[in-house]
């Protein structure tokens, strides 16, 4: 008997691109308006970047793209039903300190986020939600079910896992509807041993504040390594962008805003300094960038790219100390009193596309239970070698983290 958890992470589909236009007295004001970044959890550790480093270690020199917000949401929900060391490891992995009120704060934070995302917005479509697909044969603990409905606003659906094909269709139809058809086949290879599937979805659609001009896109060299060069369509924009030169991490950071409150940060390390950047990147660093950003007018060259990531998180999360939930030592008795239930597989899939008209991104995770800116040296910034990207909403929630090695 297995307890499955499907996490449909995030769909990001902007349909128009933009760069920040100059406003004479806005620079310092805007920088001060950018609040602290977080993964939504009141954490002491850098979950998003600890996870990034674990993924980078598992797949060196590969493209990386994932949604830390959605993964952390799922882990938080899982912690509701975990007990003893299983719960402790999940909370520790999320950076929640073992002190009175800290776990309650974690769940309240996600609850507030869910309510916030449910509010209509003029410039951005952004939604975050959860669902439980439950076998009628399995009794869930009342406290767990109540918390899922109350704190995580989860929809619940009776599901006949004795008919795996029909159960799979029911789940995939729900996910496709919530993500406007962008994620259509999240559930795969179900069998009659499943007892419950938990789904978390995120949907985001926005436009760049100022679009790139298609006529300016030209084929240019992209240096995958010092020996490998590929030709890619390189977009060109000239405007006032947020800019910071971080000498400590040997990188340039360019902030490109979307309409509404979303921003993409593109981070270009100096040649040979990618490892230094990866090791040093954390939320404290991002907060410094937000304080020190200034507007600079320059030419920005950014490749059109499409990358995807697929990760077996049961092999990666133990690097963050989350072990027991994937083993026979798992204690999930807060979910159901059935014994012998563990998470046998947690799959995360994500894809992103960036072009002149905007950015499209989708992600899904399936879990089966079984500064001051330094002067610019030139008037252009060219992303023609591997770089990082971070997409944030309202400058508070880290939605996506990625590494573009092969555009």
TrEMBL record:
InterPro entries: Serpin_CS, Serpin_dom, Serpin_fam, Serpin_sf, Serpin_sf_1, Serpin_sf_2. The keyword Signal applies. One of its GO terms (biological process) is spermatogenesis. Keywords: Signal. Pfam families: Serpin. GO terms for cellular component: acrosomal membrane; external side of plasma membrane; extracellular exosome; platelet alpha granule; platelet dense tubular network; protein C inhibitor-coagulation factor V complex; protein C inhibitor-coagulation factor Xa complex; protein C inhibitor-coagulation factor XI complex. Residues 49-407 form the Serpin domain. Residues 1-17 form the signal peptide. GO terms for molecular function: acrosin binding; phosphatidylcholine binding; protease binding; retinoic acid binding; serine-type endopeptidase inhibitor activity. The keyword Iron-sulfur does not apply. It comes from the Eukaryota. PANTHER family: PLASMA SERINE PROTEASE INHIBITOR, SERINE PROTEASE INHIBITOR, SERPIN. Belongs to the serpin family. This is Serpin family A member 5. The lineage of its organism: Eukaryota, Metazoa, Chordata, Craniata, Vertebrata.
């Amino acid at each position: 008997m297995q307890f499955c958890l499907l996490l449909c992470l995030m769909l990001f589909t902007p349909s128009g691109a933009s760069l920040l236009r100059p406003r004479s007295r806005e620079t310092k004001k805007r920088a001060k308006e950018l609040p602290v970044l977080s993964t939504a959890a009141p954490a002491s550790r850098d979950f998003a970047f600890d996870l990034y480093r674990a993924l980078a270690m598992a797949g060196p020199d590969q493209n990386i793209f994932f949604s830390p917000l959605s993964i952390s949401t799922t882990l938080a929900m899982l912690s509701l039903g975990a007990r003893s060391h299983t719960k402790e490891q999940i909370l520790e992995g999320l950076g929640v300190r073992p002190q009175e009120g800290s776990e309650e704060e974690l769940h309240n934070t996600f609850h507030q986020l869910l309510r916030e995302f449910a509010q209509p917005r003029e410039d951005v479509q952004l939604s975050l939600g959860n669902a439980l697909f439950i076998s009628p044969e399995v009794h869930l603990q009342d406290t767990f079910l109540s918390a899922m409905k109350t704190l995580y606003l989860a929809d619940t659906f009776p599901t006949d896992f004795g008919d795996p094909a029909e159960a799979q269709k029911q789940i995939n139809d729900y996910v496709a509807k919530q993500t406007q058809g962008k994620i259509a086949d999240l559930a795969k290879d179900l069998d009659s041993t499943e007892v419950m599937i938990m789904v978390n979805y995120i949907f985001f659609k926005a436009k760049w504040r100022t679009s790139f001009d298609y006529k300016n896109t030209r084929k240019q060299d992209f240096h995958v390594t010092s020996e490998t060069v590929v030709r890619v369509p390189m977009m060109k924009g000239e405007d006032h962008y947020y800019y910071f030169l971080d000498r400590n991490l040997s990188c340039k950071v360019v902030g490109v805003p979307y309409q509404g409150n979303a921003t993409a940060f593109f981070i270009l390390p100096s040649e040979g300094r990618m490892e230094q950047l990866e090791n040093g990147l954390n939320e404290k660093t991002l907060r410094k960038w937000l304080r020190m950003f200034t507007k600079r007018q320059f030419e920005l060259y950014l490749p059109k790219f499409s990358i995807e990531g697929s990760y077996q998180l049961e092999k990666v999360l133990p690097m963050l100390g989350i072990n027991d939930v994937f083993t026979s030592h798992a204690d999930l008795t807060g979910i159901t009193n059935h014994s012998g239930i563990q998470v046998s597989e947690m799959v995360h899939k994500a894809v992103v596309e960036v072009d002149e008209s905007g950015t499209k991104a989708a992600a899904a995770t399936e879990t089966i239970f079984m500064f001051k800116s330094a002067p610019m040296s030139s008037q252009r910034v060219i992303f023609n070698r591997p770089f990082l990207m971070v997409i944030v909403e309202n400058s508070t929630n880290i939605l996506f983290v990625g590494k573009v090695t092969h555009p």
